[in-house]
Automatic annotation (TrEMBL):
Residues 12-148 form the Endoribonuclease L-PSP/chorismate mutase-like domain. CDD domains: YjgF_YER057c_UK114_like_1. Gene3D superfamilies: RutC-like. This is Endoribonuclease L-PSP/chorismate mutase-like domain-containing protein. It comes from the Eukaryota. PANTHER family: ENDORIBONUCLEASE L-PSP_CHORISMATE MUTASE-LIKE DOMAIN-CONTAINING PROTEIN, ENDORIBONUCLEASE-RELATED. It comes from Strombidinopsis acuminata. InterPro entries: Endoribo_LPSP/chorism_mut-like, RutC-like_sf.
Amino acid sequence: STTPAIAATEVEKRIASLGIVIPRSPAPAANYVPWKRCGNTVFISGQIPKAEDNSLAKGKLGSNYSLDEGKAAARLCAINLISQMREACSGDLDKVKQVLKVEAFVNATDDFVDHPQVVNGCSDLLVEVFGAEVGAHSRFAVGCSSLPFGVAVETGAVIEISE
């Protein structure tokens, strides 16, 4: 017997048109769950810039990592956020009603001040994938002296999903 093809959702079509592959969600690295749902709100744990080949975008902004590299790392975090969103929505990203908030940490030197530009790598992709009405969000972008595994950026998110 053959399984009928599942029609791609609107969001999945947009992802494909952008040439992006959303990987399977990685398992948590410690004692926590990757996302937690309360009503229609989903809190997504911090996602690091881990590529499909398991490589990590490591570096410190203001020292050994450029602004463009930081933005690319933040974009990779967004791809991993979307992967967790897909899990929380049982595979249907069209169920994401709103990206409410992005919480971002940038591994940076004390004198680095361009955290917002780095995190735009994440925010811009979320708006590209979900459209401005769903993807535009509140956020914070802060610098810190280190992040797990030496990665350059870590992002979490809060989203609203439909039933």
